[in-house]
Structures are given as C-alpha cells and as structure tokens.
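Input set for joint prediction.
Command: fold jointly, output tokens.
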Amino acid sequence: MTENTRTRVRTSEDERETERSDESLSCPECSGRLVNDEEHGETVCEDCGLVVEEGSVDRGPEWRAFDAQEKSQKSRVGAPTTNTMHDKGLSTNIDWRDKDAYGNSLGSRQREKMQRLRKWNERFRTRDSKERNLKQALGEIDRMASALGLPENVRETASVIYRRALEEDLLPGRSIEGVSTACVYAAARQAGVPRSLDEIAEVSRVEKNEVARTYRYVVRELGLEVKPADPESYVPRFASGLGLSDEAEHRARKLLRNAKEKGVHSGKSPVGLAAAAVYAAALLTNEKTTQAAVSEVADISEVTIRNRYHELLEAEESLGLA
DNA sequence: ATGGTTTTTACTGCGTC
DNA sequence: GACGCGGTAAAAACCAT
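tokens >
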C-alpha cells in the first residue's frame, strides 16, 4: 500500500486554534466574511451580500479612458508607489536603449555618456548593503508569492513586514531567504488567505523548521498581530480544487461555524478541520468526492479527515436537537 | 529531557460496483 | 477484485513543562 506518497503534514503551534476572540470583521447578519468593493465604495458580506457600509472614497481616476493613448493623455500622475520595489518605484530609471526622447539614435559621444550615467545611477540606487539586501529579498518574496498564487496585496504586506524587520536590525544572523519566507507566511495569514507551513516550505529555499523558527522570531520582535488561522479561510481553495459547488462550499462554512460554537475545534489543526468540513459538505450535497481526493488537495491524512468529520457531524446533530 | 496530545503510517475487514 | 470507507495500533511530531 504505497499509494500514499504525500509529504508529511505538521502544523506549528501557531496554526492551532486556541481560543476564539475577534469578530469585528464579520457580518452582523450571518457572520460571514466582509469584503471591500472599491469600485462601488461599499463593504459587503461575502456570504449574504448585506451591505454594511457604503459611500467610502473611490481612489480611482474620475475620468474614463478607452485606450492606452487616451489614458496617457488624461492621467496626471505616475505609477502608484509600491512597497514591492526596494525603492518604492520612486528612483530614476535610465532606459537601456540608446535613443533620445524622440526615438532617434544617440551619437557615439552621447552613448558613452549615457553608459556612464547608467552605471553610476545603478551604483547609487543599490548603494549600501541594506538596499541590496532588500532588493534581493523582495525578489524572493515576489517569486514565492507567485508560486503560491498569492494576490498582490499579500506581496505588498510581506514587503512591508520585511522592511520593518530590516529597519529593526532583525536580519543579522538570519538568512535573507528565511526572513523573506517568514514574511510571506505571515502576510498570507494576515490577509486571510493562509498557506500551510508545508506549502510555504515547498517553494522556499529554506527548511520548514527554519521558516517556523524565523517566523516566530519576526512576529515576536515586530509585535505582529497574527490571529490563529481560521479553518474557513481554507475552504474556498479546497472546494475549488475539488470542483465542488458553491452550495457545498457554503455548507462547509456552516459546519465549521457550528463546530466553533461547540468548541470542538480547539487544539486541532485548522487545515484538518477545513478538509473534513469540505468532505462532509460534499457528502451532504450529494457531490462526488473521496476522502483520498480531499486528502490530496488539503495535504492531510485520510484518518484525520475521518476523525474530524465525525466530530463535525456530531456537533451538527446535537445542534439540531437543541 | 519528559509526558501528554494530535497526526500519520500501515494494515485489516466490510460492503459495493 | 478494485475501490471507498471505517477502525485500530503503533510511531512520529509537536507542545508544554
């Protein structure tokens, strides 16, 4: 029976749900997750669509542009500053093409001059070790975030965290890769799209153990506030990975919420809980899945799924009787 | 280091397609 | 007979002490 060649799964102490505390980001109606809809200036509930807040400020342009040319004519600002570039995208760039502003080729004297300018500009930009450090780290962060399919805002957050770590001189004695990885891990969790330590270690050049250690260190030193991972935040990823319906997904969330009420989830791995909920939900909505399939996408053993989903269903039943 | 808890591995039995 | 599922025992991993 060597069919199971999955990698082991371990969850760190941080991934464990200890106590339930905050509920400020939840819908008052159905306690679903709240999302910002920038375009309409509203804050709405992901689950029931309740509009919680409206009339917030739209930061987009007040004009419309139908092609790139029009856009460049109407726009009065440059690119937004971003923390994903080591100089926030604010420093000077000299084009590598030897053309002037009108696209004409440069004379040989001019070309030489530009070469020198480029060289010094580059030297100035990555002047000291910190800048170079940051440059490399941000590259790593970007690479890992893409590999994990994490959205832009997570990259941004990870970059900010890294900057702070650098500011506070947390780097000496630690590898750039290790700290970048820890930042990505922390950022993903803060953004509510957590990845397990195993997934993180998969795309990192650093061992899982070191990631965990560095992560703890960074969180402690920076006083970062990272809530215990919410099992629900894993649900969408697993559900779509299995091609399940929205109904099943919704069902899974419900199961988890009930479980939370009952306190069944304390001390258990959130990932396992989420996987079990997804499996149970598929069963309840008569959709075809196997424990093996869920175990595959969630990277959790079938045994754990079995144990958890029994507990989930029990909690559900006793709630029905109450 | 040690003990307690959770997860994983490996294996077995049962029912069904 | 392969497959999905359930259960168990022992090992491993983790956390707290």
